[in-house]
């Protein structure tokens, strides 16, 4: 049994490998091109949104925050333009997150890791930090030289100014985060004058530090080691998804630009521009965030060589295999390239998985829209006393106590609503501290954007013999007799 | 320890030598900074153990001397200081005045609920539902000593038969059989009459025999028709609420051996503000008069 199995791959006799690897710093080279331009545009738009949105105002009347987007933790309200949510309506936020997740699945199954490569905050801020680094320390070669050289005055000057710039961006990022939870002008002034709360400074420091560390130092390691998304993106992608890939059928064998070699001249431009430091020519890899910068880099080289662009391209694995099959046995050259490209078919966008994702998205949108349309601005909650379950009165009657909470989610006039009890004839309803209308019904008053609480007592006189559990309904009626809200409860008594 | 390291033919990566159904685990090295982060957590824990009370040994508080228990009094003092102005106001006015002031009433109901749960609920139950065997419900409309703000306040302050004051809430019912005031047969007849007061079906002859006995022995406190007397804590006998049970045996036992429930006096034990708050809370349970 201790014989080595014959099919076992070759083994070598090296000592135990180290269990831990030092980080190899990735020094991406600057690149110009179509994908890069799109990335710049996305970066500018997203960062502008992040930093500017808290400063947008939205008039909601006196006494109400006028910030367009605000999570007001202290008053337990979420303001988004004309929408104002209470904590118990957090499911709208959940719905938005569900939509975001399924949308991510749908986009990924069609176009690959667009989120990772273009819009993920980790990518956007890392891109920004790399741009700063490039402005100060120079491009890839200059940086490598700087890091390998002596730590002289110039080294200190460049490193200090880079880190200072990074820290500035990080502080702006941490500061903007706070503004989503506080009134932006107020908290900014407080932050600058040292008058903000310890909580504000704590979160400011936390988000400054995470921005600085994640975008400055951790970078691609966040994607490779920390983020769960690369792990399960494999379940989102299939042969029909567009992924960043190297057309090996056209590039191989790589080498000198002559007739004996494919189109890849092994210039390593794609490797040098990669922000995660991988070689796209090795095929699909967990580390690849699908940013497509290698596409730009390779296209640039191909243009200089007078060859067709698209040696590295957004391509489906299905087409890659089809081209591969079509050019089998052909020598490198224009004929092979043409044959490979001819074998491609348009991307199949309508597939079971995209249909299912679209269906789920439509379903969630419909559900949320419905929930939003039917959202009650006036709610009544009825909590029946548990202790005592019921009260035996001197005359043999039975009384139940209820706590009524009347939540009014609108701002404006206070409503005065009559409380009506629907149940067996003869039940008597009284509400502590409530006025009465002309018909003798208790009047409950709502509070502007708030909750009023009332204690109601319902009594069954001795003659009314009810079971141990009788359903009753509380109803709030406005001045015109219209029922605004109903709530079911029960009237308990002894078993008879 | 494998002496021969296998290399995966596709990635060129060394494997751990583990294999599950043909799947082999690549021996991907952990990033060093990850390891250092792990060491940093160990250092953090060590520093924590030195600075804070992390070792469950009596007297060990760590170098900072900080304990959660030690920090509590300061927090409690701060809370007391915060409540002090409100409590001072609650001490100065009567429970009735508190109930009339929305601000004081809201505070008193919240404070009274907690005070009631801490001090009263043990006997009277959460929500004041009472318990059979002499613990009256405070949520119904039947009161032994009265359900006005003033009466509730007096009962809480002096207790019932607490020996704290001769003036208030000290009267007890005699044990008619033990003291020889009534014979067992007379006790039974009286019990039948008492049950008839609340409309029970009992033997008419016994009721007639008991009528005279009741008038002589019981009516002075419980009233001619069993309407009770709150000055003496004599319960109503003509209603449907029975503190010690409404069956004949329980009533016989009450007459024969007496019942004298005891409640401690809370004056001196509770802050006058708290007595006021509990008064307001109990009054609001449903039976306040």
From TrEMBL, chain A:
GO cellular component labels: plasma membrane
UniProt region (Disordered), positions on chain: 1-23
InterPro entries in the cross-refs: 4Fe4S_Fe-S-bd (IPR017896), 4Fe4S_Fe_S_CS (IPR017900), Cyt_c_oxidase_cbb3_FixG (IPR014116), Electron_Trans/Redox (IPR051684), FixG_C (IPR032879), Ig-like_fold (IPR013783)
GO molecular function: 4 iron, 4 sulfur cluster binding; metal ion binding
Domain 4Fe-4S ferredoxin-type: 255-283, 287-308
Organism domain of life: Bacteria
Membrane-crossing residue ranges in chain numbering: 38-56, 90-111, 164-180, 200-218, 354-374
Pfam families: Fer4_18 (PF13746), Fer4_5 (PF12801), FixG_C (PF11614)
Record keyword Protein transport present: no
Classification via NCBIfam families: ccoG_rdxA_fixG
PANTHER family to which the protein is assigned, alphabetical: FERREDOXIN-TYPE PROTEIN NAPH
Protein name in UniProt: Cytochrome c oxidase accessory protein FixG
Record organism: Roseococcus suduntuyensis
TrEMBL record, chain B:
GO molecular function: electron transfer activity; heme binding; iron ion binding; oxidoreductase activity
Localisation: Cell inner membrane
CC cofactor note: Binds 2 heme C groups per subunit.
Residues at which heme c 2 binds: 173, 218, 221-222
Pathway as given in its UniProt record: Energy metabolism; oxidative phosphorylation
Ranges that cross the membrane: 33-55
Origin superkingdom: Bacteria
PROSITE patterns the UniProt entry points to: CYTC
GO biological process: oxidative phosphorylation; proton transmembrane transport
Principal location class: membrane
Positions contributing to heme c 1 binding: 120, 123-124, 263
Pfam family, one: Cytochrome_CBB3
Domain Cytochrome c: 107-198, 205-286
Sorted UniProt keywords: Cell inner membrane, Cell membrane, Electron transport, Heme, Hydrogen ion transport, Ion transport, Iron, Membrane, Metal-binding, Oxidoreductase, Repeat, Respiratory chain, Transmembrane, Transmembrane helix, Transport
Record's GO cellular component terms: plasma membrane
Cofactor: heme c
InterPro entries for this protein: CcoP_N, CcoP_N_sf, Cyt_c-like_dom, Cyt_c-like_dom_sf, Cyt_C_IC, Cyt_c_oxidase_cbb3_su3, Cytochrome_c_Oxidase_Subunit
Family named by the database record: Belongs to the CcoP / FixP family.
PANTHER family found in the cross-reference section: CBB3-TYPE CYTOCHROME C OXIDASE SUBUNIT FIXP
Assembly notes: Component of the cbb3-type cytochrome c oxidase.
Function: C-type cytochrome. Part of the cbb3-type cytochrome c oxidase complex.
Name recorded for this polypeptide: Cbb3-type cytochrome c oxidase subunit
């Amino acid at each position: 049994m201790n014989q080595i199995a014959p099919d076992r791959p070759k083994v070598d006799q090296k000592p135990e490998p180290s269990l831990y690897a030092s980080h190899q710093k990735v020094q991406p080279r600057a690149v110009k091109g179509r994908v890069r331009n799109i990335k710049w545009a996305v970066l500018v738009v997203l960062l502008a949104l992040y930093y500017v949105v808290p400063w947008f105002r939205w008039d909601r009347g006196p006494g109400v925050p006028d910030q367009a987007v605000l999570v007001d933790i202290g008053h337990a309200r979420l303001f988004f333009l004309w929408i104002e949510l209470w904590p118990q309506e957090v499911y709208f936020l959940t719905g938005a997150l569900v939509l975001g997740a399924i949308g991510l699945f749908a986009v990924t199954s069609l176009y690959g890791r667009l989120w990772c490569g273009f819009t993920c905050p980790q990518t956007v801020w890392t891109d920004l930090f790399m741009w700063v680094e490039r402005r100060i320390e120079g491009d890839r070669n200059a940086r490598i030289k700087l890091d390998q050289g002596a730590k002289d005055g110039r080294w200190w000057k460049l490193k200090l100014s880079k880190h200072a710039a990074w820290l500035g961006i990080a502080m702006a990022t941490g500061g903007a985060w706070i503004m989503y939870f506080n009134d932006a002008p107020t908290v900014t002034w407080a932050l600058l004058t040292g008058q903000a709360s310890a909580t504000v400074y704590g979160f400011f420091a936390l988000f400054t530090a995470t921005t600085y560390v994640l975008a400055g130092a951790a970078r691609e390691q966040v994607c490779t080691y920390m983020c769960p998304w690369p792990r399960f993106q494999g379940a989102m992608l299939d042969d029909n998804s567009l992924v960043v890939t190297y057309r090996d059928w056209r590039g191989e064998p790589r080498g000198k630009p002559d007739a004996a070699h494919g189109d890849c001249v092994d210039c390593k431009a794609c490797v040098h521009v990669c922000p995660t430091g991988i070689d796209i020519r090795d095929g699909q890899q967990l580390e690849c965030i699908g940013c497509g910068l290698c596409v730009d880099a390779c296209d640039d080289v191909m243009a200089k060589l007078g060859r067709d662009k698209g040696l590295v391209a957004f391509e489906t694995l299905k087409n890659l295999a089809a081209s591969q099959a079509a050019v089998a046995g052909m020598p490198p050259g224009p004929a092979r390239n043409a044959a490979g490209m001819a074998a491609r078919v348009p991307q199949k966008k309508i597939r079971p998985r995209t249909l299912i994702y679209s269906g789920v998205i439509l379903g969630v949108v419909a559900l949320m829209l419905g929930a939003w349309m039917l959202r009650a601005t006036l709610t009544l909650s009825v909590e029946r006393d548990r202790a005592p379950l019921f009260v035996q009165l001197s005359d043999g009657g039975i009384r139940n106590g209820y706590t009524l909470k009347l939540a009014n989610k609108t701002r404006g006039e206070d409503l005065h609503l009559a409380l009506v009890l629907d149940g067996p004839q003869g039940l008597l309803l009284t509400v502590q501290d409530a006025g009465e209308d002309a018909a003798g019904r208790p009047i409950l008053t709502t509070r502007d954007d708030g909750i009023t609480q009332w204690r109601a007592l319902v009594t069954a006189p001795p003659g009314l013999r009810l079971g141990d559990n009788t359903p009753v309904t509380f109803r709030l009626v406005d001045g015109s007799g219209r029922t605004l809200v109903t709530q079911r409860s029960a009237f308990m008594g002894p078993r008879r | 320890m494998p002496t021969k390291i296998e290399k995966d033919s596709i990635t060129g990566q060394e494997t751990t030598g583990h294999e599950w159904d043909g799947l082999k685990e690549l021996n991907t090295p952990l990033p060093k900074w990850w390891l250092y982060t792990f060491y940093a957590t160990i250092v953090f824990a060590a520093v924590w153990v030195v600075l804070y009370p992390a070792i469950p040994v009596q007297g060990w508080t760590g170098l900072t001397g900080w304990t959660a228990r030690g920090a509590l009094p300061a927090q409690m003092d701060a809370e007391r200081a915060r409540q002090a102005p409100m409590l001072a106001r609650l001490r100065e006015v009567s429970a009735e005045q508190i109930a009339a002031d929305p601000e004081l009433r809201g505070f008193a109901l919240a404070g009274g609920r907690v005070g009631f749960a801490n001090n009263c609920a043990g006997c009277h139950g959460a929500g004041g539902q009472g318990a059979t065997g002499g613990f009256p419900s405070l949520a119904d409309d039947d009161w032994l000593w009265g359900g006005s703000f003033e009466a509730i306040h007096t009962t809480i302050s002096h207790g019932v038969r607490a020996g704290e004051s001769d003036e208030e809430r000290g009267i007890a019912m005699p044990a008619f059989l033990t003291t020889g005031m009534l014979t067992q047969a007379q006790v039974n007849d009286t019990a039948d009459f008492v049950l008839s007061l609340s409309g029970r079906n009992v033997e008419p002859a016994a009721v007639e025999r008991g009528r005279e006995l009741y008038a002589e022995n019981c009516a002075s406190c419980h009233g001619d028709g069993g309407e009770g007397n709150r000055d003496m804590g004599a319960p109503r006998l003509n209603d449907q609420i029975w503190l010690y049970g409404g069956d004949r045996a329980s009533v016989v036992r009450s007459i024969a051996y007496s019942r004298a429930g005891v409640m401690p006096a809370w004056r001196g034990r509770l802050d006058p503000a708290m007595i006021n708050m509990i008064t307001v809370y109990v009054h609001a349970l449903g039976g306040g008069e």
